[in-house]
Amino acid sequence: MADNTVAELLLQKLRDGDCEGLDSLELAGALGVDHQQVVGAVKSLQSLGEIIEAEQRSSKKWELSAEGQEIAESGSQEVRLLQSLPKEGLQQSELMKLPIAKVGFSKAMSNHWIRLDKAAEGGPRVFRTVDAVEDAVKEKLQLILQGKSDNVNEKDKSELKKRKLLNEVTIKTYWVTKGKGFSISISKQDTDLTPEMIASGSWRDKKFKAYNFNALGVMPESGHLHPLLKVRTQFRQIFLEMGFTEMPTNNFIESSFWNFDALFQPQQHPARDQHDTFFLLDPAMASEFPMDYLERVKKVHSEGGYGSQGYKYDWSINEAKKNLLRTHTTAVSARMLYKLAQQKEFMPVKYFSIDRVFRNETLDATHLAEFHQIEGVVADFGLTLGDLMGVLKEFFNKLGITKLRFKPAYNPYTEPSMEVFSYHEGLKKWVEVGNSGVFRPEMLLPMGLPEGVSVIAWGLSLERPTMIKYGINNIRELVGHKVNLQMVYDSPICRLDS
Fold first, then answer.
1. For residue 169, is pLDDT > 50?
2. Fewer CB within 10 Å: N-end or C-end of the chain?
3. Same domain flag for 261 and 203
4. 72: which residues sit within 8 A by CB, 6+ positions away?
C-alpha cells in the first residue's frame, strides 16, 4: 500500500472516528500494513503544515527470539531431552549426539529430572528420575507470544532473557490528532519560488512548503589524500605485485653499527660526521649486538678478508655503538639479510621498504632534514648487473616511466653501482631518479650468507615527483594554476637522497 493511500486513510479515520486520536501501531494493525508505513505517512502529513498533530510515545514490550519461537512450538530442550530418554537409560555419549543435548542435559540435571551413573557398564549412562514433567518454559513463552506477558512474573522473564529466548524491545509510536488546519484533501506544496512566479504574481495563490532553517546543508567537497600518500600507496602496490615482502621499518633510532659498519662503510667516512648525521645524547650508546658477527665486521674493516684488503684502520667498537637517527633504510635491509643468513637453509627473498630517514642538513630551498626512502632488495644465487637493470626497468615501467638510462657510480657498500636517470618530458632533460647496485661481498659474507649469493638493491626518494606520473606531470592540477616546472623540481619536496 502506497504511503499516500495510508495518509488518506489516516485522515479519514480521524474525520469519521469518535475517539480523540489514533495510535499509529493500532492503525497499522487495523489497516494490515507495516508500522513504518504509517510512521512515514504521519511524517509526510506533518511536513504539509498543521493538518495533524503527532506526539511520539515510547513503550516496551517482550518479543520471542527465533529460538524462543521454536521452543514455544516444540517445547524446551530439557523436556524434549527427557522425552527422548528411554526408561532403561542411555549412554551419555549417545545422548549428547542429540541437537538439543548441550542445553537440555544441563537444564535437566539442574532440575533433578535425570541422573548420571559414571560407573555404569559400557561408560557413563543417563537415567530418568521422573516419569513426566510440565514444560513451564514453553507455557511462559506461549503466554508472551499471545500478548499476555503480564501473566509472567519479572523473575521468569529475566531467566528467559538470560537463555536468549526473550528480548525486551522499545516500540516508538505516534499519537495522532487533528491539527488546526485539518483537512482530508492533500495538495502538493510547491518547494521552489521561480522567476516566472514572481513575474506573473502567481506565487500569491500558491502554498509553499515550509523551509527548515535548522537542517544541515550539503557538506562542501574539501580535503584530499596527500599526494605523497597516494604515491606511497602506488609504490607499495607495485612492490607487492612483483612478489616483494615489506620489511619492518618502525625503528627510527639505529646504532652506527647497523647504519654504517654492517654496510662496510668506514668509520672515518664523511657521512658519519655530526654535520651529516643526527646523533643521540640519551641514550648515546647501544648495548646489544650479535658479537660473533660484530667481530667479523671488525676484522673485514681493519684487516680485510673474503678476498678484500679492507680499509686498514683501527676499528672502534665505541664508534659502532653510537646511537643515531637512521640516515637510510638500508640499515633495515642489513638487519633482514643478517636474519636471512641465520636460517639453516638459504631461501631467495625479495624485500622492500618505504619509510622516513633523517639527515643533518642545513635547511634551504632544496634540502630538508628528513624525507622518505623507498628501497628494494633481491637476494639469490648468481644475480648480476643485468638482473638489476631488468628489475629496475620492470619496476619503473609499472610507474609509467619507460625512458631510462644507467650511469656508473660509487657507493661504499655496492660494487658495481649505478645511478638511474629518466627523461622528463616537462623539463625536456634527463633527471636522476634513483641509485642502485650489487652489495659487496665484504658486507654479505660476514653475515654468514653462502658464497655465490648476490644481493641487488636500489633506492629512491618518495618526495621526488619528477619520477612519478602523478607528481610533476599533474602538479599544475594540484596547485590550480601555471607553475615553473624547474622551480618545482628544485624545491625540497623533489629532493633525492638514496
1. yes
2. N
3. no
4. 64, 138, 141, 142, 145
